[in-house]
Amino acid sequence: MITLSDVSVAIDGTPIVADISATIPAGRLTAIIGPNGSGKSTLLKALCRDLPFSGTITLNGHDLRTLSPVAAACHRAVLPQSSTLPFPFTVREVVAMGLTAGRPGPNAQRVARLPEEALERVDLSGFGGRYYGALSGGEQQRVQLARVLCQVWTPVLDGLPRFLFLDEPVSSLDIRHQLLIMDEARRFADTGGGVLVVLHDLNLAAMYADQILALRAGRLVAAGAPIAVLTDETIQSLFEAPLRVGALPPAGAPFVLPQSTLARSTQTFRVA
Amino acid sequence: MTSLSTSALPALAHRAEGDRSHLGRAVVLGLVGVLVLAMVVSLTTGASGASALALARHWLGLTQAAPDTLLRDQVVILNIRLPRMLLGMLIGAGLAVSGLLMQGLFRNPLADPGLVGVSSGSALGAIIIIVLGGGLLAPVIAPLGIFALPLAAFGGGVATTALLYRVATRAGQTAIATMLLAGIAIGAMAGAFSGVLVYIASDNQLRDLTFWGMGSLAGATWVKILAAGPIIAISLIVAAFLGKGLNALTLGEATAAHLGVPVQRFKILAILAVAGATGASVAVSGGIGFVGIVVPHLLRLVIGPDHRYLMPATALLGASFLLMADALSRVIVAPAELPIGIVTAAFGGPFFLWLLLQRRRNLAW
Known about the structure:
- The complex is a heterodimer of chains A (272) and B (365).
- Chain A is of the alpha/beta class and 272 residues long.
- Chain A has helices spanning 40-47, 69-75, 91-96, 108-121, 137-151, 175-190, 202-208, 226-229, 232-239, 266-269; strands at residues 2-11, 14-24, 29-33, 54-59, 62-63, 76-79, 156-157, 160-161, 163-167, 194-198, 211-216, 219-224, 243-247, 254-258.
- In chain A, the strands form 4 sheets. Chain A has a 6-stranded mixed beta sheet, sandwiched between helices. Chain A has a 4-stranded antiparallel beta sheet with strand order 2-1-4-5, covered by helices on one side.
- In chain A, helix 4 (108-121) runs antiparallel to helix 5 (137-151).
- Chain A starts with a strand and ends with a helix.
- A two-stranded antiparallel ribbon of chain B has the order 1-2.
- Chain B starts with a helix and ends with a helix.
- Chain A binds chain B through residues 48-50, 68-70, 72-74, 76-78, 80, 83, 85-94, 96-98, 100-102, 109, 112-113, 115-116, 126-131, 133-134, 151, and chain B through 10, 14, 16-20, 107-109, 244-245, 247-248, 250-252, 254-263, 300, 304-306, 364-365.
């Protein structure tokens, strides 16, 4: 479990994130939503220790500040928004970098297969020998996810849950691979790990999240299950945009549709 | 799916696609052989007809040689060629590994201590000792003895590498243009200071400086090995432990930290290793250029960029490359010899240009 109490982050003296207290439990998928500049990525960076913060964050009971880099790497893996490589590594070599901190748990034979298993999970079997630099942006993003999955190869280790931090993991992917990646994150949470994901797509958040944290101007304005957070009132004020929430027929999951006065009506589409 | 052979021969069957570690290991082994060959060439090449083979035969009691030839051969080989060979190996490995470390640290295949001013900084440190060591700085330097020169060059290397990193790297990303331009500026500054020192140097010091600056192994002595060897050797040992972390660092500093690399400590170790290997090499041999860019690049073409294999391979090939270049420099205008810096530059300059052309074509990286 990850707990945040009164977490604030300032960059060059400007407060970006202020007084956030929240819990990110294991076995759950937590989504952070909010408009551009609301501090989503900044909050994630503080959780990754990329930025100094005030307040307290604990990761599986350990104070995040005093955790060694290797211990932190055993507890959580981070998927960045994008990664470029200056050297011609193969896909497999990139995925195997997930094992940098060592390989707690599996036996040697299993370790040798971890990169292939991870590639299979992101639908890139057979890509191991390709050069990373020659792949499309979407493929590179999936290779990075495979690297991250290789690092936290099992959602629970020695009785402690491990965490996946995903920073806009699907923004460069087509719809099939968006679902594929989110399915993988969902599976990680369902098997005991914790997932924290920054999402722009509210409908993916509605579909996959157990818990949504809504940020606006660096403050936590709403937190809870999708059905509680995704209401007309909340998201309209959150994004300052004309949005409408509906419910999908079978399960009643909420979905969000943009409404614009300039949108073309159905009349426009009709062939004369 | 799971065929019989995979379960029966797991070790062989699981050579996964894109896994080049077997190639890396094979090339490292092969390069050990190449280095042994280069060592033999180095011991047996030279203006005098001294034969290492004859000496070895005599020591083993196989032949009786004329005593005066034998004495001459013994002197030539033990006091001239053997220290020269050892120094060449240390410097070749040191310069090549420095290049590889800088390329990994700056996430940039064009980084090289000679190109971005680290060698100039080291040279300034050395020139200060050569010119001022006898007079102004004598009280400080005297207790350091033979180590004064390599330590001063090491200091110059640390200062320039740290300054370069500070200027050219922001949030873990190095802009290629900024790095090369900052390197030119730093090199020019070091050059200006060096120029002032050369201006006030005496005639004898000038002669020393000129030949030293061209880069040569000709003055190799056991004393020089004792002075520079330990610093280079420690730097190489430190570098040997940095391979895995350098791989992670190619993903960027933030990601390397997420993967468990203690990034700040790691960078300081890498910078000290670069400065140690470059500084000590420059102190005893002057400017030998392009080793740090030619050797890692050739190996990257063969075994890929995995630093765990690239590091030992670079050290081995760097040592072999410099021994070969040195042998060539002794033969090409025999009985005189060319400064080795001229040989490496004649080979490395065109190679570097070719590299730039390749990069222009190959947009993949």
